[in-house]
Design brief:
The chain has about 850 residues and is mainly beta. It is built from 4 helices and 69 strands. Among the domains are: about 150 residues, no CATH class; about 100 residues; about 80 residues, Thrombin, subunit H, CATH 2.40.10; about 100 residues; about 70 residues, no CATH class. Helices cover about 5% and strands about 45% of the residues. The strands form 16 sheets. The chain has an 8-stranded antiparallel β-sheet with strand order 20-27-23-24-25-22-21-26, with no helix packed on it.
């Protein structure tokens, strides 16, 4: 019976597939977890409770399904990130989660859900199937507003300001500005916070303005001359403007005719055809904007006179005025038009705007002139001219995505293509090619570039295209094999670099069922693993739906949640004689299987039960028929009775009371904008703090938490509560507690389970051989709360606990003496659970084992 010390101290491979449970001969077995629900792994090997989310806003009520929206961030300036929610017929524009503006569009639900985007300077450009011409969303300054007076910390303006709470502004002057700290200057964008109809405070960033941090102070009067504030609040969504369109010969039909130019150079020159084009080609207005090449000349078509004459503007002169043979010429239409289709995919690279995939040319790829995103003219062939390419590989090659990385990668239905990899110089029309790199097709999600690789999802497989600088190529690997159970019909993804944690590079992958798979990667440290994440509520359900991030280390989610909303009160009555365990209330129509939250109101006396009923308290109803129901103290009691049909846990009413009513609180679906946060480990966390601080024991949260069991942090202490009538109350031992800063949200139920231990003596696994664990020691960092197999984790001796002081994160070792017998494989490993609104970080598990 040899005695061994054994450790599990690296969990960077995340949650492993059940197929890995017996593979103790591979490295992943020792670097992963059996269960890692709501767990994030660290590049150092540790594992802990995942991030929380901060509630930002409830999206427009017209949104009824996640596939009606397109959600993305728009980095307008380095200190302003807008969150854009495209929905049918409108775009809702948020800044720091606050609704800034709504722009009317003509896009329907299908158009919106299939949008592609890129950011060009200060324009958010979208393209997509069904929207026609690509469109640009832009913001500009409105009319000026003259500064009337100043206070010590605010400006009063001549006219009312924007109705949004915060908004970007800039200033102009005629003589001198007011003296401020920091000093305002012309040409710089600041952020104003509205504190009155015509009064604003000033901040350096949108984040500071929202939370009233680092407010500008004013130390002198209004300055001299006229000082004017301009608010950037004029949003437009218009067709993208193009100077020159690319060209393509779709129909030919001119080999057997000639073209005679009316002049060698100039504009307004007529070219005469010796006959009409052969069907299906017809010379008509669709050629305007196209081009003609032949006889040494190039020309842009500016008008079509009739079927045998068109007018051009000559760019390169013709050699002679003699007829030019059609078989030696090129007569081309604009490649994009209402007739031929507009690009459905867009991006940008090396100061060129990129487009791809029209209805007529699904494998078409175009890049604009350098430094001119409107010019796709490709008539001259200069190095900075526009580029056109048609990737092919024995298939039709529909272009699905453009991903600019170390090269331009084009993802089609048949594989991945890349622009030249061995060239350091910029791409040009003469050097550009698209070469097949891998036969892995991108499926329905835009591939993401992060950590020297491109993440490609194909079906339920996750591939990485890793840049190989030595061979100047991409190499493909499937990284989801060990965690195949975490990816199920993915519908959205985003790359995210968490700048608050060293080396934390993630890809957030949202599944169709509303779960989130997080892929952690750090190639340099051989870190590569998946963990699954879910949203939970005590009443109703919640799902992740869409995700977007930006390069400032911030990430946002659109989540689908069910919230309880009160219906009109209904009179209640009883079937005599009492006692009775059911109530009659006309047309309540409560579910007979799923508990519905209810409250009671009265202008007389409530019905009598044991324990007694109370107003402003939630109970739970199970319907018997449309007019009759039973009442329970908890959801658990109601579900238990439904399961065994005993009705023994229903409240028994011994007196009817008088003038009492029941209020039903059924569930309604909403969509919320929530931001990832490491400040608190709660979901949909409502943040309470005022300037100046105001202590309170009751926080108004809106309808988010009605009838919900929530966790809270108030001034560093943890609390539990039930949301009632749009509020939550902080209480300890039944007494109210005043707090000045608080988070209220849904608990994150973290569940972590290590793989069964398998010390491999003599290179052979002992996985199925009986073992006996003497003791096990768990090492934690930055941890508050949690249990192991139901036993509370205690890292601080009782005499180190400061009564009345907030709990402090602790690092230390928690030891358990195991009194089990042998064969621990059939009595599985240790389960760590945690749902406190704080962090838990597991560094390692250390065993003393008899083998």
């Amino acid at each position: 019976m040899p005695y061994q010390l054994w450790s599990q101290d690296n969990f960077s491979k995340g949650e492993l597939s059940p197929y890995m449970y017996a593979r103790a001969q591979v490295a992943q077995y020792y670097d992963g977890l059996k269960t890692a629900q709501n767990v994030l792994t660290y590049p150092t090997g540790a594992a802990g409770t995942r991030f929380g989310t901060l509630y930002q806003s409830t999206l427009n009520a017209a949104i009824t399904s996640f596939n009606q929206i397109f959600f993305q961030t728009f980095q307008w300036l380095d200190n302003a990130v807008y969150q854009l929610v495209f929905r049918p017929l409108a775009i809702d524009i948020y800044l720091e989660g606050l609704l800034e503006a709504t722009v009317v569009t003509t896009l329907d639900a299908v158009d919106v859900y299939n949008l592609d985007y890129t950011v060009l300077v200060q324009a958010f450009r979208v393209a997509g199937q069904g929207i026609g011409k690509p469109k640009d969303l832009k913001v500009a300054a409105g009319a000026g507003n003259v500064i009337l007076t100043v206070g010590t910390d605010s400006f009063t303006l001549t006219n009312p300001v924007d109705t949004a709470l915060i908004f970007p502004v800039s200033f102009t002057k005629t003589l001198t500005f007011p003296t401020t700290n920091p000093q305002i200057k012309p040409g710089i964008v600041y952020f104003a916070r509205r504190i009155g109809a015509s009064q604003v405070e000033l901040y350096d960033t949108a984040y500071d303005a929202k939370f009233q941090l680092n407010k500008f102070t004013i130390t002198a009067a209004t300055g001299t001359g006229v000082n004017t504030m301009y608010t950037f609040n004029t949003w437009t969504f218009t067709n993208a403007v193009f100077q020159n369109l690319p060209i393509y010969d779709f129909d030919g039909g001119y080999d057997n005719i000639t073209f005679t130019p009316g002049a060698l150079t100039g504009s307004g020159v007529t070219i005469t055809l010796s006959g009409i084009l052969t069907a299906p080609a017809t010379l008509d207005s669709k050629y305007i904007g196209g081009a003609f090449f032949g006889g040494g000349g190039t020309a842009r078509i500016t008008a079509v006179t009739d079927t045998t004459h068109f007018v051009v503007s000559i760019q390169d002169p013709f050699d002679a005025l003699t007829p030019i043979q059609g078989s030696l010429s090129l007569l081309a239409e604009p490649a994009w038009s209402d007739v031929r289709g507009w690009p459905q995919k867009c991006s940008s690279y090396q100061n060129r705007a990129l487009f791809a995939n029209t209805a007529s040319l699904p494998n078409g790829f175009w890049a604009s002139v350098v430094n001119d995103y409107a010019d796709f003219g490709d008539l001259t062939g200069d190095d900075d001219d526009a580029i056109f390419w048609l990737p092919s590989s024995n298939d039709i090659n529909f272009i699905r995505f453009i991903v600019p990385f170390r090269s331009i990668t084009i993802h089609t239905n048949s594989g991945i293509y890349s622009s030249p990899l061995s060239e350091i110089a910029a791409i040009t029309p003469s050097t550009f090619t698209l070469q097949l790199q891998d036969s892995t097709p991108a499926d329905v999600l835009q591939p993401q570039a992060i950590d020297n690789q491109i993440i490609v999802i194909s079906g339920n497989d996750v591939h990485t295209m890793v840049w190989d600088g030595i061979n100047n190529a991409y190499t493909s690997n499937i990284v989801s094999i060990a965690s195949e159970q975490t990816i199920r019909d993915p519908v959205d993804e985003a790359a995210f670099a968490d700048l608050s944690r060293a080396g934390s590079r993630y890809v957030m992958i949202i599944n169709a069922n509303g779960t989130l798979a997080v892929y952690q990667t750090l190639i340099a440290e051989n870190v590569s693993g998946f963990t699954p994440h879910i949203l939970e509520q005590s009443y109703g359900s919640a799902q992740f739906r869409q995700v977007a991030s930006n390069f400032d280390g911030r990430c946002w989610f659109v989540n689908q949640r069910q919230i309880a909303s009160a219906l009109a009160a209904v009179n209640i009555s009883f079937s005599l004689p009492l006692p009775s365990n059911q109530i009659t209330a006309t047309a309540t129509n409560f579910s007979t299987t799923i508990p519905t939250a209810i409250t009671f109101t009265t202008t007389g006396t409530l019905p009598i039960t044991t324990p007694p009923l109370a107003v402003l308290t939630y109970y739970w109803a199970i319907g018997i028929d449309p007019n009759t129901f039973r009442v329970y103290l908890s959801q658990e009691d109601a579900l238990a009775d439904v399961a065994d049909s005993a009705d023994s846990l229903a409240l028994v009413f011994s007196a009817a009371g008088s003038n009492s009513k029941v209020v039903a609180w059924p569930l309604a679906t909403i969509f919320t904008l929530e931001e990832l946060t490491q400040d608190v480990h709660l979901d949909c966390a409502f943040y309470y703090k005022t300037v100046p601080p105001v202590a309170t024991d009751t926080v108004t949260t809106g309808a988010l938490f009605n009838a919900q069991a929530v966790k809270m942090v108030g001034d560093g202490f943890g609390f539990d509560a039930i949301g009632v009538n749009n509020t939550v109350t902080f209480e300890a031992h039944g007494d109210p507690v005043q707090v000045t800063e608080a988070y209220i949200g849904f608990p994150i139920n973290m569940l972590m389970e290590a793989m069964p231990i398998s010390p491999p003596p003599n290179q052979l696994t002992s996985l199925t051989k009986p073992t006996h664990i003497r003791t096990v020691r768990f090492m934690f960092n930055n941890t508050i709360g949690g249990t192991i197999n139901g036993v509370p984790i205690a890292l601080r001796p009782f005499d180190e606990v400061d009564i009345g002081e907030p709990p402090l994160p602790k690092k230390g070792v928690f030891e358990m003496s195991i009194m089990k017998g042998w064969d621990d494989f059939n009595n599985p490993t240790f389960t760590i659970e945690h749902n406190d609104p704080f962090d838990l970080q597991l560094i390692g598990i250390f065993y003393s084992v008899d083998v």
